[in-house]
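Sequence, please.
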């Protein structure tokens, strides 16, 4: 079975579209190439857990986390978006992501709660 997850703006949920490979969330084939990336942090509403990641589409990625398409965050659902920052290029987004995952970066994120 092949499918690709996409954001349906009318229903504001994730929907499946036939004809695409079933890959893990955030790794679908055929995504648009962009120079803008976002670093984001989501906070679990049920547990004391903050997840930091990077993506080219924050809204889609947030919905994927809440829908349980990411193995590492599935058990901590539901989430709220805690922080989002736009960067120019994947390399700078990765650098900022690593900072936010560090001890100092986590302390910064905890001040936003």
């Amino acid at each position: 079975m092949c499918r690709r997850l996409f954001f349906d703006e009318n229903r504001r949920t994730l929907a499946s579209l036939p004809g695409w490979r079933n890959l893990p969330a955030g790794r679908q084939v055929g995504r648009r190439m962009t120079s803008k990336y976002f670093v984001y942090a989501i906070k679990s509403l049920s547990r004391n857990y903050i997840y930091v990641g990077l993506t080219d589409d924050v809204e889609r990625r947030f919905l994927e986390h809440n829908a349980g398409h990411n193995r590492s965050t599935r058990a901590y659902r539901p989430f709220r978006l805690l922080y989002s920052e736009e960067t120019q290029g994947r390399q700078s987004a990765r650098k900022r992501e690593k900072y936010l995952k560090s001890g100092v970066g986590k302390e910064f994120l905890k001040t936003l709660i």
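The domain at 35-111 is CATH 3.40.1440.10 (GIY-YIG endonuclease).
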